[in-house]
């Protein structure tokens, strides 16, 4: 075996430990030489062999070249930047034999713990699962099988059918023998019954009565006898015997008792009979038979009697080739339901049912489920009974199988056991789980009533039984070979797949029986105790322990046993845990047979994880501390691996009262490994009474572990102030920096969280304080510490350059703790105080929180001093402090102090030292909220400060309160950030103002500031004026030049979009001056793209033509433009003024002769179509055609048409002439 003891020699000879001291420390661990006994022998000379080289040769040692060793060493070299990143502390563990830098380890007399730098880096996949045996157990009933073996008992013939009762089972043979056995116990043969008449033939079916006192036996020739099972052995006591209970030439294929003396009989013609046994009247043994279902309605192939345990439901289920009939026994076989069969008719219909009993708090609930299956589909139905006794059969779900079914039975409430045949005619037992619904899925299905849940199921256990079982089929009886094959073709086709009477389950059992050719088999699900014994038998103690833990934790339950039996087994499993732990521990310490050192470490990790998890999950902590660790700590490698695995459980805080030796070893291991974050998290989860406080506190001080320091001081010494003092001293060293590192930010945030917990009387970082007295004193002491006037540490140490700090400032600085908090993060500090404002330390004494606020205000309103290095902090503090005060006032935590609040607002806004406009906006909004909460503040003083700048939001609030809306709008116009807010403000004012004078003042403001508003947004200005004050346009009719052109342009555009024909809504002649001015100014201000000006104005004129043609003003302006700039515009105006001939002449002369514009040609053609008489009188088309022929070169036109076939001007003229001619 390759154990860690052998591994010690490997370490000593490895190249990674060159120092002799390191080798000696490893070899002499625990001060014992017992570990070396396996490899130390006396040679012939009497000298001691310290190293067994034969053993080393057998071990797989990883060889390394010099280059590999050098490369491996280079991976652990840190450059200067890395050393600065880790603060001078190497993130890697020290080398073997190297002197550690942890002061907490030095001087402590403890055994060496092997660092994990070499071995801890080995990746190991921890065991989260384990393999169990197959849940399906096929067992041969040897006792019965030996008695029915056809080779040893040839007189019986071959086996044909099987019947199972509560305490008995019977097997029928081809020679007419009925063999009755005990089902459990000794399974001895109780009766060997034979009809005594060779004409009866082979036994085809059997059934026990409900009380097990009778056994009905059916034969393939149609004979029937009923046997008394209570008769003495070897006494054939027949209650009934006859060979003519059914039609001649028919054999029996089913028998089913529904009461103690009523028997249902089915023959191979598909007929169903009801047989009533008489009560020995006149001491005659006879009975009567009546047919209740004839085969002409459908041949019955399968039959089942479904009944509940309380007999409230008694149902007879008959399956034919196409459908299933449900008959009520209590209503004299009245039909209560009919279900359609699905699947191929070449497969036999299958019926099975199961009653599920649910134990409720007040009663026991019974649930009957019916399964109807054929081919590769099974349908599950629920049997429900109404209050009146009517039965309902709602379908639960449909299961789709991958292979055709031969037979299907419930094996428990959640699983089916099916017999299927593959394509190669191989018989298989398939265990299939029934899909379960969650509560949400079930609710969705209830909402979708038309949807039937359908699942494709796959077996999770498949067992081949073709050779092992050799299942017997009932094909001979269903084919009617004993009666001359007097059956239908459909019966012949399906008979080869029928095994109704050789695969049997009693309704109250959780196991099934299969009848083979010469043996009887029982199939059941494996029980938990059998599974556990199997794991222990093959020495798989790891899986066995995990299996037992899952049972004890309730993750596994035996589905085959009751709740009481499961609870008893859980208790027995709990008692087995110490034994299994000991066995697995010994197996672990023995190591592995062979392999690399890394494989051994992985083996240790996996097993130790299972051992620790088992002890923790089942609360066997004494077993973990006294048995496992006491055995593990004797081996160096085992102890290191064990401590590494222990880390997960320590961080989960699941260890209960660990001993000091284990705690100290574990913490020492973390320090040696350099795992400082894990060390801190472990300290706060372990009990302080088990720690070496000197070791822990030394490490915390060296590595600045605030959480661990607080935990030790709070729990061991009940001291909550010392951690505060130390952390404030640490913050004072770096809080002056402009940029803080991530580590420094974390340290400060932890301090703020600790302050919050202390002020509200809670434990850090969570939980309650252990003593009510501490809950009263700790918050008060914390508050006193925050507002302390002088500090116990030197504030000058916070700067790396003390000579740059004013000595006068250091002498006069007060409230150092408060200053440190404000310098670090004033906002988060205010959030902490605001959160704790309802705490008893403030709520029970009104002056405390007010005093703190006063100190903060006094800090903010200090006079500017060039020597004050905190001037930037004071400037940033003001807006935050106002917001903080607002929150306290809303909670009612502090009283109103009008003087100080006014002074604060004055100092904040007089400094004008906001770093950005966004900060200024936030400060203004906070000040407005403070003014709203404290209306007693003198608004005049505030306005004197705010208006000159101006501070928009402050001024807006004051003017709104005073109803000075004109000044309010002036403020918004002066806002450099968001001046557009003036427009929604005007709309709001217009909607809220009800007095005519106020509305008039608003109108006057708009009139006076129209140009300013247009500069901001002329479109919004035009929309506001047209919607609310259109009279402003009416007032400017006589002098439209006072209006900005952009405003007027947007007014015309808005009215055009609104389909208005006038600007002010009055008569057209009233708005004519507006359009004249707009027309003239548009021409004057158009400096570029003059070619587009004509088309732009034509577009405007077409809509506003009544205004543009009301006078000759626009016409005269357009005619005065040089070089025919506005030809089309002038033509349109001439037409509107009635000068049609002049319009033709102007368009032809200026637009065609001078400009030769294509648009003018198109316009002329349009005019000729609109005014054909005038065009004909003026002969304008002829003139146009003649001009084009004179000006264009025929050759150039032809060449151009060859290159570009698009129509030219001449083409359009010709086409148009043709059109006119036609």
Automatic annotation (TrEMBL):
Recorded superkingdom: Eukaryota
Origin organism lineage: Eukaryota, Metazoa, Ecdysozoa, Nematoda, Chromadorea
UniProt similarity note: Belongs to the VPS8 family.
Bilayer-crossing regions: none
GO CC aspect terms: HOPS complex; late endosome
Domain Vacuolar protein sorting-associated protein 8 central: 642-834
Name of the protein in question: Vacuolar protein sorting-associated protein 8 central domain-containing protein
BP term (GO), one: protein targeting to vacuole
Organism: Meloidogyne enterolobii (Root-knot nematode worm)
């Amino acid at each position: 075996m390759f154990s860690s003891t052998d591994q010690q020699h490997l370490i000593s000879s490895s190249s990674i430990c060159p120092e002799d001291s390191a080798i000696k420390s490893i070899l002499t661990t625990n001060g014992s030489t017992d570990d070396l006994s396996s490899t130390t022998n006396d040679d012939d000379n009497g000298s001691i062999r310290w190293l067994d080289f034969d053993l080393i040769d057998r071990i797989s040692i990883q060889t390394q070249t010099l280059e590999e060793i050098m490369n491996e060493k280079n991976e652990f070299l840190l450059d200067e930047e890395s050393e600065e990143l880790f603060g001078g502390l190497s993130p890697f563990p020290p080398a073997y034999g190297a002197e550690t830098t942890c002061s907490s380890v030095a001087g402590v007399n403890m055994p060496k713990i092997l660092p994990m730098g070499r071995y801890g880096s080995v990746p190991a996949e921890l065991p989260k699962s384990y393999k169990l045996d197959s849940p399906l157990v096929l067992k041969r009933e040897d006792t019965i099988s030996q008695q029915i073996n056809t080779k040893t008992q040839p007189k019986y013939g071959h086996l044909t059918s099987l019947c199972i009762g509560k305490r008995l089972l019977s097997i029928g043979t081809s020679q007419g023998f009925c063999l009755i056995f005990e089902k459990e116990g000794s399974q001895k043969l109780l009766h060997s019954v034979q009809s005594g008449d060779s004409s009866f033939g082979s036994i085809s079916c059997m059934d026990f009565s409900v009380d097990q006192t009778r056994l009905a036996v059916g034969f393939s020739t149609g004979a029937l006898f009923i046997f008394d099972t209570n008769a003495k052995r070897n006494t054939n006591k027949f209650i009934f015997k006859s060979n003519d209970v059914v039609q001649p030439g028919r054999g029996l294929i089913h028998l089913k008792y529904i009461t103690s003396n009523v028997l249902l009989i089915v023959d191979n013609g598909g007929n169903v009979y009801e047989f009533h046994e008489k009560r020995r009247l006149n001491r005659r043994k006879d009975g009567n038979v009546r047919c209740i279902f004839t085969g002409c309605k459908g041949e019955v192939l399968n039959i089942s009697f479904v009944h509940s345990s309380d007999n409230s439901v008694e149902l007879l289920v008959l399956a034919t080739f196409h459908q299933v009939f449900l008959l009520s026994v209590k209503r004299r076989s009245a039909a209560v339901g009919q279900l359609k069969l699905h699947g191929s008719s070449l497969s036999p219909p299958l019926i099975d049912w199961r009653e599920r009993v649910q134990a409720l708090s007040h009663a026991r609930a019974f649930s009957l489920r019916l399964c109807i299956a054929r081919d590769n589909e099974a349908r599950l139905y629920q049997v429900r009974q109404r209050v009146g006794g009517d039965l309902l059969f709602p379908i639960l779900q449909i299961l789709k199988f991958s292979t055709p079914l031969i037979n299907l039975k419930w094996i428990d409430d959640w699983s089916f056991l099916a017999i299927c045949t593959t394509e190669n005619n191989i018989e298989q037992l398939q265990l299939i789980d029934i899909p379960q619904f969650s509560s949400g899925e079930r609710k969705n299905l209830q909402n979708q009533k038309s949807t039937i849940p359908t699942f494709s199921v796959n077996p999770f256990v498949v067992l081949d039984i073709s050779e092992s079982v050799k299942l017997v089929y009932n094909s001979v009886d269903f084919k009617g070979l004993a009666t001359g094959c007097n059956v239908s073709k459909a019966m012949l086709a399906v008979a080869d797949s029928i095994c109704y009477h050789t695969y049997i389950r009693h309704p109250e059992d959780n196991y099934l029986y299969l009848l083979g050719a010469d043996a009887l088999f029982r199939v059941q699900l494996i029980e938990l105790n059998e599974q556990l014994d199997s794991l222990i038998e093959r020495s798989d103690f790891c899986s066995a322990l995990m299996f037992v833990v899952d049972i004890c934790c309730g993750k596994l339950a035996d589905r085959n046993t009751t709740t009481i039996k499961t609870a008893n087994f859980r208790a027995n499993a709990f008692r087995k845990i110490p034994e299994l732990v000991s066995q697995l521990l010994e197996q672990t310490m023995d190591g592995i047979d062979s392999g690399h050192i890394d494989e051994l470490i992985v083996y240790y990790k996996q097993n130790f994880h299972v051992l620790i998890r088992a002890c923790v999950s089942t609360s066997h902590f004494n077993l973990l501390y006294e048995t496992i660790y006491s055995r593990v700590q004797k081996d160096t490698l085992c102890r290191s691996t064990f401590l590494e695995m222990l880390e997960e459980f320590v961080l989960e805080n699941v260890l209960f009262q660990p001993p000091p030796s284990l705690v100290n070893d574990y913490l020492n291991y973390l320090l040696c490994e350099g795992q400082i974050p894990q060390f801190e998290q472990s300290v706060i989860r372990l009990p302080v009474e088990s720690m070496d406080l000197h070791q822990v506190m030394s490490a915390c001080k060296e590595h600045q572990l605030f959480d661990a320091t607080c935990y030790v001081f709070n729990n061991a010494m009940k001291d909550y102030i010392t951690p505060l003092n130390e952390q404030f001293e640490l913050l004072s060293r770096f809080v002056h920096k402009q940029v803080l590192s991530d580590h420094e930010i974390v340290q400060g945030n932890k301090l703020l969280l600790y302050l919050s917990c202390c002020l509200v009387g809670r434990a850090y970082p969570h939980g309650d304080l252990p003593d009510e007295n501490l809950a009263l004193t700790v918050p008060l002491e914390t508050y006193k510490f925050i507002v302390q006037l002088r500090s116990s540490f030197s504030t000058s140490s916070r700067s790396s350059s003390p000579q740059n700090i004013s000595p006068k400032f250091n002498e006069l600085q007060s409230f150092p703790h408060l200053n440190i908090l404000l310098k670090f993060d004033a906002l988060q500090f205010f959030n902490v105080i605001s959160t704790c404002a309802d705490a008893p330390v403030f709520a029970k004494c009104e002056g405390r929180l007010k005093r703190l606020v006063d100190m903060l205000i006094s800090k903010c309103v200090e006079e500017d001093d060039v020597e004050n290095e905190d001037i930037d902090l004071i400037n940033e503090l003001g807006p935050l402090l106002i917001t903080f005060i607002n929150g306290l006032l809303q909670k009612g935590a502090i009283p109103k102090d009008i003087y100080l609040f006014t002074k604060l607002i004055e100092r904040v806004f007089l400094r004008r030292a906001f770093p950005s406009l966004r900060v200024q906006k936030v400060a203004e909004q906070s000040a407005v909220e403070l003014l709203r909460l404290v209306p007693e503040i003198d608004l005049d003083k505030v306005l004197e400060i705010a208006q000159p700048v101006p501070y928009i939001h402050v001024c807006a609030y004051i003017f709104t309160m005073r109803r000075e809306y004109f000044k309010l709008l002036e403020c918004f116009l002066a806002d450099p950030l968001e001046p557009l807010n003036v427009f929604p403000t005007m709309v709001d004012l217009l909607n809220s103002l009800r007095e005519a004078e106020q509305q008039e003042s608003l109108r006057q403001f708009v009139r006076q500031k129209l140009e300013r508003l247009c500069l901001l947004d002329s479109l919004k200005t035009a929309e506001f004026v047209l919607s609310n004050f259109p009279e402003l346009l009416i007032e400017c009719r006589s002098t439209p030049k006072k209006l900005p052109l952009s405003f007027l342009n947007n007014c015309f555009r808005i009215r055009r979009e609104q389909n208005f024909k006038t600007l002010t809504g009055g008569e057209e002649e009233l708005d004519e001056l507006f359009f004249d001015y707009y027309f003239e100014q548009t021409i004057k201000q158009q400096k570029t793209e003059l070619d587009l000006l004509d088309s732009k104005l034509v577009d405007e004129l077409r809509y506003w033509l009544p205004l543009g043609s009301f006078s000759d003003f626009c016409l005269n302006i357009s005619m005065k433009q040089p070089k025919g700039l506005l030809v089309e515009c002038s033509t349109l105006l001439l037409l509107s003024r009635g000068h049609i001939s002049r319009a033709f002449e102007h368009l032809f002369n200026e637009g065609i002769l001078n400009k030769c514009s294509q648009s003018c040609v198109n316009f002329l053609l349009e005019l000729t179509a609109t005014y054909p008489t005038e065009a004909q009188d003026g002969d304008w088309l002829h003139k146009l055609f003649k001009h084009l022929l004179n000006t264009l070169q025929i050759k150039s036109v032809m060449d151009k048409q060859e290159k570009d076939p698009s129509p030219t001007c001449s083409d359009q003229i010709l086409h148009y002439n043709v059109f006119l001619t036609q």
